[in-house]
Amino acid sequence: MAPSSAAQWFGAVATFLAVIVALFRDFIWEWRRKPKLIVTCENSPPCTVRTPLFVNDLRTGNLLWTGDSYWVRVKVENKGRTRAEKIQVSLSNLYYRPSVDGEFSEDARHHFPLNLKWAHIGVPILDGISPDMVALCDVIALSDPANPHRPQLANIPSNATVGRLQLEVNLPPEFDSLRPGSWKLTLRIGAANAKPIEKTLLFSHTGEWRQNDVDMRRECLRVSLT
Asked: Which of 89, 100, 121, 178 has the highest count of CB atoms within 10 angstroms of its CB?
């Protein structure tokens, strides 16, 4: 190739690339700066945390009972370069396995998807998460079965633990309760400016309660995310 031909060829390529950059500059810039949501959950704080539970009379405000409860939460972190806007965590599928030897089967009582509520503020859609910041979303609450004010389920012993899904709507206990056994929850996490990602939360409880937190986590409660 003659020098003049090579120069013309390189000039044409440079002109073409300059046009491409000009046309897609804003798109490339936005893509590089978009939020990146990282979701984790494990059987330890802050994702699985034991907290005091206070039951008050809604009419008088008097304290009726106090004990402990466990909260299972997913941790959502923004590792991108811009703020994630209007984030939601949606429960899209729920599966149940009564024993370790059985197979998971879809729970037919529920009609999903439904959003879960963000921890401490109780809203289904979080306004935003800034870069390198974290927010927690409630998934399941598990109360000490000694709580005399918790809902009772048919065919479940009164001294057994029962999980409660933390959904955006208040459902009757028979529709939002997780009886003892293993549960597989399909979660979708997305934002107004971030493509949804899908995670599977595995949650199991034996129905037993331990006053010692270490014993409870080792013997009666399992949480993981894949």
From this structure: 89
